[in-house]
Amino acid sequence: MINDIRAAIRTQKIILVMSPVIVEEIEEVINRERIIKLTKMSKDERADFMGKLIERSDVTAGKQLLQIVSRDIKDDKFLACAIEAKTDYIITGDEDLLVLKKYEELKIITPREFIEIFKKVK
Questions:
Q1: What is the pLDDT of residue 1?
Q2: 69: how many CB neighbours lie within 10 A of its CB?
Q3: Is beta strand 89-91 parallel, antiparallel or unpaired with respect to 106-109?
Q4: Are 20 and 64 in contact (CB under 8 A)?
Q5: For residue 26, is pLDDT > 90?
Q6: Burial class for 47, CB neighbours closer than 10 Å (0-12, 13-18, 19+)
Q7: For the segment 45-95, what is each residue's pLDDT rounded down to a tens digit?
Q8: Alpha-carbon gap, residue 27 to 9, rounded angstroms
Q9: Which pLDDT score is estimated for 78?
């Protein structure tokens, strides 16, 4: 199933969306010592990963929301990006986002829920 999702991303049946602040956060996280030990990725491999991730994503301007929505204000960047890009879903394991279930027309679901949806439309 994971390979099916990767293929769908490569063929743009699924579009990844990020904003500059999300790119910064991902880059910061993959360069944490704990993550480096876990992934065993070299500096070049991490840079290559970021390049490919950005290459396969639509990057929005990253406008901020007019009001605080999530329990954790740091998560509002994901809502703002998704709204700006007019996406259908945010796929996350973050409880602060999942408790919202929906924001405007945007559905907030777990990876497992997304896989179930993906299986039906694949």
A1: 63
A2: 16
A3: parallel
A4: no
A5: yes
A6: middle
A7: 999 999 999 999 999 998 877 677 888 889 999 999 999 999 999 999 999
A8: 20
A9: 93
- Residue 2 token pair: 């994971």
Give the pair of three-digit tokens for residue 81: 């990006």
Q: Which two tokens stand for residue 78?
A: 């994901």
3-state secondary structure the chain: CHHHHHHHHHCCCCCEEECHHHHHHHHHHHCCHHHHHHHCCCHHHHHHHHHHHHHCEEECCCCCCCCCCCCCHHHHHHHHHHHHHCCCEEECCCHHHHCCCEECCEEEECHHHHHHHHHHHC
Q: Which tokens hold the place of 27? A: 């880059």
In terms of Cα–Cα distance, which of 16, 9, 15, 45 is closest to 30? 45
Q: Classify burial at 44, counting beta carbons within 10 Å of its beta carbon; exposed 0-12, middle 13-18, buried 19 or more.
A: exposed
Long-range contacts of 113-116 (CB under 8 A, 24+ apart): 114/89, 115/1, 115/5
CA distance 39 to 25: 17
